[in-house]
Amino acid sequence: MLKSIALFPILAVYSVSAQAAALPGDAASGKKLYDANCMACHNDSVYKRKDRQVKNLEGLTQQINSCGHVGDITIGKTQANDLVRYLNETYYKFK
Ligand code: HEC
After folding, report:
1. How remote is the CA of residue 42 from the centroid of ligand 1, in Å?
2. How many CB atoms are closer than 10 A to CB 29?
3. For the segment 22-56, what is each residue's pLDDT rounded down to a tens digit?
4. Closest Cα to atom 10, ligand 1: which residue?
5. Is the dihedral of CA 23, 27, 30, 35 positive or negative?
6. For residue 41, how far is the Cα from the chain centroid?
7. How far is the CA of 69 from the centre of ligand 1 (A)?
8. Are 17 and 76 contacting, i.e. CB atoms less than 8 angstroms apart?
9. Is any ligand 1 atom within 6 A of the Cβ of residue 77?
10. Which of 47, 67, 74 to mutate to test the pocket of ligand 1 (most atoms within 8 A of CB)?
11. Is the pLDDT at 78 greater than 90, yes or no?
12. Is the CB of 40 under 6 A from ligand 1?
């Protein structure tokens, strides 16, 4: 009984990192897309500020798509996934 209680936190950590790894997309390619397309209107201070607007992964995807529309950048599903992964790993760290 005691043994299984001691194991629980370890399992919890494993399942969180398994979830993060399950995010589709490629962060390296997201960074390239980002550097090429996303610096025109804002720098990374919008992801680091205290009152940032994006609160979860879904919101991040929506925001990236709407920034694409505003900036007239074509963002396909693969590119959106890459950008989400890059921004999440670098700034947001949503699970
Ligand atoms: C045409 C201008 C424009 C371009 C280009 C642009 N954005 Fe944005 N973006 C904005 C504006 C405006 C905001 C809102 C800033 C604010 O609320 O102060 C914003 C906000 C964001 C946020 C939300 C930050 C928060 O508060 O959490 C994310 C994420 C984001 N942009 C990602 C991107 C990505 C990724 C790209 C490249 C694909 C991109 N943006 C390109 C205009 C742009």
Report:
1. 6
2. 16
3. 789 999 999 999 999 999 999 999 999 999 999 99
4. 67
5. positive
6. 19
7. 10
8. no
9. no
10. 67
11. yes
12. yes
**Is any atom of ligand 1 closer than 6 Å to the C-beta of 37?**
yes
pLDDT digits (tens, 9 = 90+) for 52-76: 999 999 999 999 999 998 888 889 9
CA-to-CA distance for 95 and 68, rounded, in angstroms? 24
Angle at 32 between CA 34 and CA 25, to 5 degrees: 85
* The two structure tokens encoding residue 3: 């043994």
Residue indicated by tokens 């610096």: 39
* Amino acid symbol at 44: D
| Residue nearest ligand 1's atom 8 by CA | 67
Indicate whether residue 52 lines ligand 1 (CB < 6 A): yes
Q: Is the CB of 41 under 6 A from ligand 1?
A: yes
Structure tokens that stand for 71 in this block: 């900036």
